[in-house]
Every structure is written in structure tokens, then in C-alpha cells.
């Protein structure tokens, strides 16, 4: 089916029935998002659209809505786990602890360096896996990781020196 025929089909037969179908099943924002996703799937599969098109499009919308609902459930579960694993700032480690020093040092790094180190240390990802997450090469990750670790060591030294701890190469300050 060519683009003009598909646009005509959407305007005349699919758009409003799909909008009503989704509005009866979810909140307005989700309905709009799922409608857009449904029309995108229909566009991609426009050569597969049968006659009549509406029941098939309802099936596509139903699947897209199920995907959206699963995504929301996953996000809620992940947020719940994150709140337990990486608690909000108000439940931060005791002042003066090693964890407190680490959090202070991470906060002084650039957001990119801190994220890189968190992916490596907390999520235990390999440089190749981090490269996938950040959409860069594994070699770039290795180089950036080496630099970020050096910066973190430097920042930890500053935090510990300020707290009166020993410096790595000398006595107490």
C-alpha cells in the first residue's frame, strides 16, 4: 500500500475509532502515546493491512497498549528496587564514613564520569556492555574509565585529606 492510500485509510477508517478504543482503556496521555505507536506499527506493516483494516488495527492497538502497561509495571518495579538499593539522599551513609567520602567524591566528578563509574562498579558491567549503554566504542569506554578512576582516586584523596586521614604517599595531614 502506498503512502497516500495509507494516509487516507488512517484518516477515514482508523484514527477516530482507534482513539476512542484507547481512550476507553487507559488515561489520556497513555492513549495518545499508544495511538502514535499503533499508527507507527501500522505504517511499518502497511503492506500487511487486510480488508477490513479496523479489526486488525484494533489488534495492533491492543498489543501496543499491553506493551505500554508492561513498561509502566517494569518502571515501577525498577523504581522500587532502586529506592532500596540506592536510597535517596536523606538516607545517606553516616557522616565521616567511607561511603560518605565516596558519594562526596562522585558528586565532584562530571556527570558523565560518575555515570561511567557507577555502570562499572555498581552495575558490574564490562567496558563492552558499558559501550552499548552509552553508544560509544569499548575502546573509548576503557580510556574514559581509566581517566574517571584516576579522577575518583584524586577526589577521594581530597575528601580524606580534608577529614584528616592519611594521604596515599605520606603521613597524616
UniProtKB/TrEMBL annotation:
<dbReference type="InterPro" id="IPR036388">
    <property type="entry name" value="WH-like_DNA-bd_sf"/>
</dbReference>
<keyword id="KW-0805">Transcription regulation</keyword>
<dbReference type="InterPro" id="IPR039425">
    <property type="entry name" value="RNA_pol_sigma-70-like"/>
</dbReference>
<dbReference type="InterPro" id="IPR013325">
    <property type="entry name" value="RNA_pol_sigma_r2"/>
</dbReference>
<comment type="similarity">
    <text>Belongs to the sigma-70 factor family. ECF subfamily.</text>
</comment>
<feature type="domain" description="RNA polymerase sigma factor 70 region 4 type 2">
    <location>
        <begin position="100"/>
        <end position="152"/>
    </location>
</feature>
<dbReference type="InterPro" id="IPR014284">
    <property type="entry name" value="RNA_pol_sigma-70_dom"/>
</dbReference>
<protein>
    <submittedName>
        <fullName>RNA polymerase sigma factor</fullName>
    </submittedName>
</protein>
<keyword id="KW-0731">Sigma factor</keyword>
<keyword id="KW-0804">Transcription</keyword>
<dbReference type="InterPro" id="IPR013249">
    <property type="entry name" value="RNA_pol_sigma70_r4_t2"/>
</dbReference>
<dbReference type="Pfam" id="PF08281">
    <property type="entry name" value="Sigma70_r4_2"/>
</dbReference>
<dbReference type="InterPro" id="IPR013324">
    <property type="entry name" value="RNA_pol_sigma_r3/r4-like"/>
</dbReference>
Amino acid at each position: 500500500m502506498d503512502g497516500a492510500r495509507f494516509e487516507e485509510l488512517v484518516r477515514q477508517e482508523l484514527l477516530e475509532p482507534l482513539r476512542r478504543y484507547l481512550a476507553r482503556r487507559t488515561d489520556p496521555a497513555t492513549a495518545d502515546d499508544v495511538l502514535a505507536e499503533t499508527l507507527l506499527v501500522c505504517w511499518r506493516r502497511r503492506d500487511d493491512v487486510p480488508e477490513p483494516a479496523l479489526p486488525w488495527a484494533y489488534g495492533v492497538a491492543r498489543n501496543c497498549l499491553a506493551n505500554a502497561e508492561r513498561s509502566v509495571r517494569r518502571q515501577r518495579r525498577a523504581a522500587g528496587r532502586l529506592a532500596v538499593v540506592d536510597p535517596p539522599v536523606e538516607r545517606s551513609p553516616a557522616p565521616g564514613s567511607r561511603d560518605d567520602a565516596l558519594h562526596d567524591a562522585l558528586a565532584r566528578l562530571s556527570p558523565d564520569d560518575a555515570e561511567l563509574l557507577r555502570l562499572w562498579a555498581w552495575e558490574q558491567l564490562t567496558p563492552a556492555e558499558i559501550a552499548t549503554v552509552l553508544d560509544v566504542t569499548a575502546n573509548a569506554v576503557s580510556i574514559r574509565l581509566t581517566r574517571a578512576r584516576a579522577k575518583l582516586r584524586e577526589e577521594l584523596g581530597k575528601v580524606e585529606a580534608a577529614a584528616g586521614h592519611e594521604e596515599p604517599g605520606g603521613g597524616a595531614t
